[in-house]
Amino acid sequence: MSGADPGAREERFRCLHRDTYADLLRFVERRVPVSEAEDVVSAVFLTAWRRFEEVPVEARPWLFAVARNTMANRTRGWRRRRALDVRLASLDADEPSDDSAAAAARIDLERAWRALSAADREVLALIAFDGLTAEQAAAVLGCRRSTFAMRLSRARTRLRTALEPAGPHTRSSSRPHPVKEQSWTRA
């Protein structure tokens, strides 16, 4: 595409930006502080512009992978920030509710989510929150589809286990992982 019309390249890039910006921003906002999300997304689109010839026709997974790598590079400079902190509190927390069962379910889900490893949260989030297919998510993580499917199955099982009521014999399995420097880039 290096010899192609610069106007056509610019128009294709504008379409790419328009079609993927919102999804990419949501993807990034769940993983870095909101105040830094737009900077990461800007860096992703700058990379896409510079490497435009490498952008595949189905660009969304490629952009997500670039965003993931950009965040990983930035994470090396940040001190002890938790990766992939899904903000479950954004689920209409402004409205007071008399539905204690729904509140208990949200609390249980948040507890179970935090009990998962960063790698498990990443695998589940790519499917549940980002709406990627297994093939696209595998591309984001840089693994084969079959490897991703296995990771997803195991993450779902661990989430299901973490959601089970804590009894005297299951209490230790519901404790969150010890806080340590985890890298979700090895998901």
Give a verbal description of the structure.
The chain is mostly helical and 187 residues long. The chain contains seven helices and no strands. α1 packs antiparallel against α2, α1 packs across α3 and α3 runs parallel beside α6.
| Chain oligomer state | single chain
Can you tell me the overall shape? elongated
Q: Considering DSSP H and I runs of 4 or more, what fraction of the residues is helical?
A: 55-70%
Class inferred from helices and paired strands:
mainly alpha
Strand segment tally: 0
Order of helices and strands: HHHHHHH
CATH architectural category of the largest domain: Orthogonal Bundle
User: Which runs of at least 5 residues are low in confidence (pLDDT < 50)?
Assistant: 79-92, 170-175, 177-184
The separation of the N and C termini measures 34 Å
At CATH level 3, the topology of the largest domain is Arc Repressor Mutant, subunit A
Gyration radius, rounded? 19 Å
Please count the helical segments. Answer: 7
Assign the CATH superfamily of the largest domain: Winged helix-like DNA-binding domain superfamily/Winged helix DNA-binding domain
